[in-house]
Design a protein that fits this description.
This protein has 438 residues and is an alpha+beta fold. The chain has two domains: 294 residues, FAD/NAD(P)-binding domain, CATH 3.50.50.60; 120 residues, no CATH class. It is 30% helix and 24% strand. The strands form seven sheets. Strands 1, 2, 5, 6, 7, 8 and 23 form a seven-stranded mixed β-sheet that branches. The longest helix has 25 residues. The chain is globular. The protein starts with a strand and ends in a 5-residue tail after the last helix. Bound molecules: flavin-adenine dinucleotide.
Length: 438
C-alpha cells in the first residue's frame, strides 16, 4: 500500500496550498486528483483569475506566502503579468505547467485519474482513502488527511454530517462553463464602449482593457429576439487573461439540483456548451472589436461554485463575513463580497459592511473536521454557512486555508495531537514566518 504523512484529496487551489505547505515543511505528501491535471477550477474550469489575494478594492494585500511562489512560477512560464486591479489574471495551460512544476520541485507524489470513493477509519482517525482507477480500487494510507475535493467528499465518507446547498431551501449556486475568445481588437472595443456607455463598459487599467461588462439592455434585447441563448443570465462579464485581445467569459449558467447525478450533470454540461456557442456568436455580431475574434476554447469541465461543505469545530457565519469577524485562532483573511449565483435571482453581490477595503478572518476551527482527529476541510468545502462560503470560496483564500492545513498537519504529526488541539499561536507564528499575512 502506498503510504504518506499527508494525503490530500483534490489538487485545486486549496489542495495545492496544503500540499506545497506540507511538502515544504518536510512531510511525505501525496495529492489524489480525479482529473488529468492539477489546478482544480483554475485549470479544469477556466477560472483564470485569482481573487482574494487583495481586498476587493485592490488596495491591500491580504494573502501571501505560497500564492506568491505560484504567481512567480507562473510568470516564469509566461502565464501571467501579475496583479491587475484586485485580481491576478492568468492563462490555464501555463498554470498547469507551473503547479505541476512546483509539485515535482517539492517531491509531491501526484495521482491523476484517481477518484477517492471512500476511506477506512480506526476510531476517530482516518487510516487510508480508497482510490478507484484503471486497476480497480486500492488504498492509500496516511497520517493526516486533507479534504480539498470542493465537494467535501472525504468528510462525507467519514460518515460525519455534511452541509449541502442553501440552508432550509436546498438549492445550489449555478454552475458555469467559461470560454475563451481570442483576437479581440481592443482599440475598437474601447471606442465602442466610449460611444455606447449604455451598452457596455470596458474600464482601462494601465491603458489595457481588464474587464468588459455587457449591460442588461443589449443582452435582454438579443434574448427577446431569440438571437441569444443564455437562459439564466441578463448581463455579461469578460476578463482579460493577461494576453492582448484574449478574454474569458463567465456568462453561461446552469441550475443544478443534484450535482451527484451523472445524468443531470451531463444535461447541464450539454446545455452550457450550447450557451457558449450562442453567446460567442452574439458577442461577435454585436460588439465592435469582436468581428475577427474566434472561439478559442471552453473549459474541459463544469465549474461548480458550491456543492457540499464539511462540518468543522466552528461553522463560519454569514454575519462573521459581513461584519469583518475577528478570531483568536485566525489562519487567513478574506475580503471578497458574498457572490451568489442564485438560480432564482441571478447574480447577487453583498458587500462587507465596512466596505471593499475591509476583510474578515477565517478561524482555524472552521478548517478542522468535527469528530475526526486527522482531517482538515479547506477551500470550497470549509465549514461555513452557505452565504459565508459564497465569499470564502475564492481561490486566493482557498490557497491560504491550504497553507494553514499543511503546516498544522506537520505539527499534528510532530506532537502526536489531534488537529483540534494544535497550538494555534505557534501555527500562526510559523505561517507568518512563511509569508502568510495574518
Ligand atoms: C465559473 C466560476 C468562476 C469563478 N471565478 C473565480 C475567480 O474569478 N477568482 C477566484 O479566485 N475564484 C473564482 N471562483 C471560485 C474558485 O474557482 C473556487 O472556489 C476555487 O477553485 C476553490 O478551490 P478548491 O481547491 O477548494 O476547489 P476546486 O478548485 O473545485 O478543486 C477541487 C479539486 O478536487 C478534485 N476532486 C473532487 N472530488 C474528488 C475526489 N473524490 N477524488 C479526487 N479528486 C477529487 C477536483 O477534480 C478538483 O481538482 C469561480 C468558480 C467558478 C465555478
Amino acid at each position: 500500500m502506498d503510504s504518506y504523512d499527508l494525503v490530500i484529496v483534490g489538487g485545486g487551489p486549496a489542495g495545492l496550498g496544503a500540499a506545497l505547505a506540507g511538502a515544504k515543511n518536510g512531510l511525505k505528501t501525496a495529492i489524489i486528483e480525479r482529473n488529468p491535471m492539477l489546478g482544480g477550477n483554475w485549470t479544469h474550469s477556466y477560472v483564470v483569475s485569482i481573487l482574494g489575494v487583495y481586498t476587493y478594492d485592490g488596495s491591500e494585500k491580504i494573502v501571501g506566502g505560497i500564492v506568491d511562489e505560484i504567481v512567480e512560477t507562473l510568470k516564469g512560464f509566461g502565464g501571467t503579468k501579475g496583479k491587475v486591479g484586485n485580481f491576478i489574471p492568468f492563462r490555464p495551460d501555463e498554470m498547469k505547467l507551473a503547479v505541476s512544476h512546483l509539485a515535482d520541485k517539492y517531491g509531491i507524489s501526484t495521482y491523476f485519474n484517481s477518484l477517492v470513493i471512500g476511506c477506512k477509519l480506526s476510531g476517530n482517525r482516518i487510516t487510508s482513502v480508497t482510490v478507484v482507477g484503471k486497476d480497480g480500487t486500492h488504498e492509500v494510507s496516511g497520517k493526516e488527511f486533507v479534504d480539498s475535493s470542493g465537494d467535501a467528499d472525504l468528510s462525507y465518507y467519514t460518515a460525519s454530517n455534511a452541509m449541502e446547498g442553501k440552508e432550509g431551501e436546498g438549492w445550489h449556486q449555478e454552475a458555469t462553463i467559461p470560454f475563451r475568445i481570442a483576437n479581440v481588437n481592443e482599440a475598437e472595443l474601447i471606442n465602442f464602449s466610449k460611444e455606447h456607455p449604455e451598452l457596455i463598459s470596458a474600464p482601462l487599467i494601465e491603458g489595457k482593457v481588464s474587464k468588459i461588462h455587457i449591460n442588461p439592455p443589449l443582452v435582454e434585447k438579443a434574448k427577446k429576439e431569440n438571437k441569444l441563448y443564455l437562459p439564466n443570465e441578463n448581463t455579461e462579464f469578460l476578463f482579460n487573461t493577461s494576453r492582448e485581445g484574449e478574454f474569458i467569459c463567465n456568462a453561461t449558467h446552469a441550475k443544478i439540483k443534484d450535482y451527484k447525478s451523472g445524468q443531470e450533470v451531463a444535461k447541464a454540461i450539454n446545455d452550457l456548451r450550447h450557451q457558449v456557442a450562442s453567446d460567442f456568436e452574439f458577442l461577435k455580431k454585436n460588439i465592435a472589436g469582436f468581428e475577427n475574434s474566434y472561439l478559442m476554447d471552453s473549459s474541459p469541465g463544469i465549474g461548480m461554485r458550491e456543492t457540499r461543505r464539511g462540518i468543522g469545530e466552528y461553522v463560519l457565519k454569514r454575519d462573521d463575513v459581513l461584519n469583518g469577524g475577528r478570531f483568536e485562532d485566525h489562519i487567513a483573511r478574506c475580503g471578497h463580497p458574498l457572490e451568489i449565483h442564485d438560480p432564482n435571482k441571478g447574480l447577487v453581490y453583498i458587500h462587507l459592511n465596512k466596505g471593499d477595503s475591509s476583510w474578515y478572518e477565517i478561524p482555524y476551527r472552521s478548517i478542522v473536521q468535527k469528530g475526526i482527529d486527522n482531517l482538515f476541510i479547506i477551500g470550497r468545502c470549509l465549514s461555513a454557512e452557505f452565504d459565508a462560503q459564497a465569499s470564502a470560496r475564492v481561490s486566493g483564500t482557498a490557497l491560504a486555508m491550504g497553507h494553514a492545513a499543511g503546516v498544522a498537519a506537520k505539527m499534528c504529526i510532530r506532537d502526536n495531537t489531534p488537529a483540534k488541539e494544535v497550538n494555534v499561536k505557534e501555527l500562526q507564528q510559523t505561517l507568518k514566518e512563511q509569508g502568510a499575512i495574518l
